[in-house]
Amino acid sequence: MLIRPDRLATKIELVDVQHQKLFELLTKLSEGFGQGSPNEKLIGDALQELMAYADKHFLEEELLMLRSKLDPRHIKIHRMEHRSFMYDAKSMWEHLCVEEDLASVAEKLVRFITSWLIFHILGIDKTMSTQIFAIQHGASPEQAYEARHAVKYDADITHMMLDSVLDLWHLSLERCHKLEEELARCRDVPPGR
Ligand SMILES: [Fe+2]
Q1: Rounded Cα distance, 112 and 107, in Å
Q2: Ligand 1 centroid vs 120 CA: distance in angstroms?
Q3: Total number of domains in the chain
Q4: Res. 192 pLDDT band, cuts 50 70 90
Q5: How far apart are the CA of 160 and the centre of ligand 1, in A?
Q6: How far does the centroid of ligand 1 lie from the alpha carbon of residue 35, in Å?
Q7: pLDDT per position as a tens digit, 79-93
Q8: What's the CA-to-centroid distance between 99 and ligand 1, angstroms?
Q9: Which among 155, 171, 80 has a CA at the least distance from the CA of 122?
Q10: Residue 142: its pLDDT value, please?
Q11: What's the 58 CA to ligand 1 centre distance in angstroms?
């Protein structure tokens, strides 16, 4: 997927700088399996660094939303997206490591994190910044929240969002098929074995 950093800008400097750092850490993670045989320690360390930075970044975004007095409905959903990313990325790493070879685990993780970040930034992060600017210009938190979908998406951004959603959907579908196969195998095992 082609990432255009300029298209991902929320126009809030602190947030954009931290998003850039997340993509740099993602590149470091992909380098762990890009050359020769994958190195488990390198990939594990790079993933840990990325997750620790993501956690810090999410917390700072949540504090920014509270300080900017965003509508609690937005903060609640936004925080849930952050938490679900932390949970999904960790459980992907733990489960896939048992089931698949390291190169394919790392490749799927990089795909998941890339697509998740793009969809999250273009979606809820951009509506967050729209609301912050609206409140700075005199709107109430409720008015800013109700108007959040007035954000216009051009064809480029719509395609980037669609690509990322489709990729996330394919990854979940693959995971569902694997779980179904495992379930079928468990059903075939006679009781007591
Ligand atoms: Fe966010």
Answers
A1: 9
A2: 6
A3: 1
A4: low
A5: 17
A6: 32
A7: 999 999 999 999 888
A8: 30
A9: 155
A10: 96
A11: 6
